[in-house]
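re: that chain from earlier
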Amino acid sequence: ASDGDACSTHAHSPLEAPSFPRILSRQFLPVKMATQAVSAVAGIAPQQAAPAQSAKASGFASGGVRVPRVAGLAKGSARVKHVTRASATPQGRPSPYQFEKDMDQLEAQQSALGQARLGAYGVVVGGALAVGAAAGTATGSNAAKAVLTAGLGAGAAVAVATADKKRVSAAPKALWNGMLNRDPATITKADVDAIGAKFGMKDMSKDCPEAVTELYDAYLQSIVPMGDDPVQGWEPEALRNFRQQLGLEDADAANAHIEVGRRLFRKRIELGDKDADLESRREFQKLVFISTRTFGEKQAKFLLPWNRIFRVSDAQVSLAMKESASNLFKNHVNESGAINTLEANALAAAKAYQQELNLKDTDCAEVVQELAQDYVVSKVEAASELAQVRSVNSDFTEANKLLTEVLDYNKKMAAGGDALPGLQVVTLAGSSFEDKSGEANTLFRNFVTQGTESGEFSAELKSSAGALKVLFGMGNKEAEEIVLDVTTKRYRELLRDAVKSGELDKAESPAKVLQSICEKLQFPPEVAADVNKENYRTKMEQVMEKKRLTDEDVEALGRVRRLLCVPKDVVDECTMDICGAVYKSAVLSALSVGTESFTPELRDRCKRAKDAVRLTDDMALKILKNEVVKAFMAYIRVARTKQNKIEQSKEIRKMVYFNSTVVTPMVSDVTKAAAEDAAKELADLLKEAQAAAKKEEEDEKKEAEAKAESEEKKEEGEEAKDGEEAKDGEEAKDG
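^ sequence. v structure.
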């Protein structure tokens, strides 16, 4: 076959014309004209190209990329130009056959002859022989007649052979032009064979597979998504159907897939741009996926040796399959809403589609977790927006409702089991909300605050708060601080209500009421004790604003202490800090004037301050001791700065004098009362002891008198008894 043959397997070898003497001279000009006439009758014109039709004139968009030759196709076959991009569905897509292929005059005549071609061939050869015989007769020579007849017959045979070669090259072009602007989905094998029959081909997919492959190649190139456009999923099925409609063998179709891959690689090399390189790689990955899905994984391994031809590794092929399959699976579950609703039938359909795509469980889990996180993030962000809206009553109901939906969603995810890989508890780690810790803390605080409005931190609320903590990725310490802060405020409110309502006053045991509040809120008792201490301190600060305590103030403090169960050590601490501050101020004023300016008035002011705030002697002495030590240290520091011992001795003597004239009287004022109380107590004890001794002496005296009287009566009785016995003896003697 010549270079112009498109279907090389069925190209007919040209007939070899016998050489004959050049006998045509000027005298045989009529014969030459006759020969041209015969050629015209046969439909064989001189081989000069018809005016070529430009791509623009044929309807092809300007700037299109010429599609290179498919492996195995004849060099002379025209190629497809197209710029079609993939869309979501095959309906409504532009045809990949958008322009007509140019034919030369002989190819056009072959196409016009159709099935009448063989008859025309016979007429041509017969006519040539007849013309040769007639011309030979005109010369009057039998030798010339024979030569002319044979020569014109051979020339006619050569012309017929040349025409038949044009038939073979015209068939693919006629097939392409016959499918002009048609949707590949509507092309059937009957349509292809009908065109082939015009050129003597019963089954074009077998008689001229390169031409049919060319149709398939153009369609394949048109449906490979370009750039960042994803695979839609319908492409493999569409290619399989088209291949079956054309009757194309798998091996021939595989050649088209390989050639499209080569085209993409050449595009990357020719453009030499980083972005174009990345785009070509993505397109190649999508081609690999579509091709593998078209033939099936097992068959694709034999028909499509990507590794050997394109020097790509198994890992790169796996990555190409993963990305497109993941995108398709993601689109499927998005459309079905399986991840958002977690409905059983939708999950089962998603599982079936995963298996159909041969998507690994790990890759499927990544998609599921990504979509689940996106769903949760949308809910959380909506809740955050609602929480940021300022309202009069700070109503967090709507925001907390969304958070509750998220928690319920996580419960369903955890209970999903093996319904679909990736069904597990969702967190915000790695999401757009991960860095919004402030908003997360606000949502968590609002959720716990509303949950404790009833005055109870229930087990359900505790579980929900723990799940919310995991969702936000909060640390244990951070979450516990928020919970403690919220419950502390709630405890203060409940305590205030209990005091105002008189519940604590009426209670037989205020401690039991406080304990009940703590148990409902799961509030630590030690923290509750700190709150009670703070309340008592606040009350004492209020009554001490006038720098003295009245009997009413003492009574009020006693009531608060009883209701809040404030222990004595806390009372003493508050008294030292708050009441002691008044006495301390007076002491500082007295100690700061020095020995010469210290007067009885300053001394009396300290005593009055102590009595005004109801400070005990021990507390007053402790305060006085602390301030006196500071004053003594001041003298010692000054003495250390002196250069000689005489000056140092003077400072020490000043300190001693200060102690005797200022400190000692102030200490005696504090301890005098204690001494008087002790003496009074001792006197009372002595009186009680004397009274007890006197009473004991009287009792002993009474007991001695009673004993003496008893002994005297006993002796008188014995004497009377002895007298009676003596009298009886005398009477007996006389008798």
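The CA atoms of residues 445 and 485 lie 9 Å apart.
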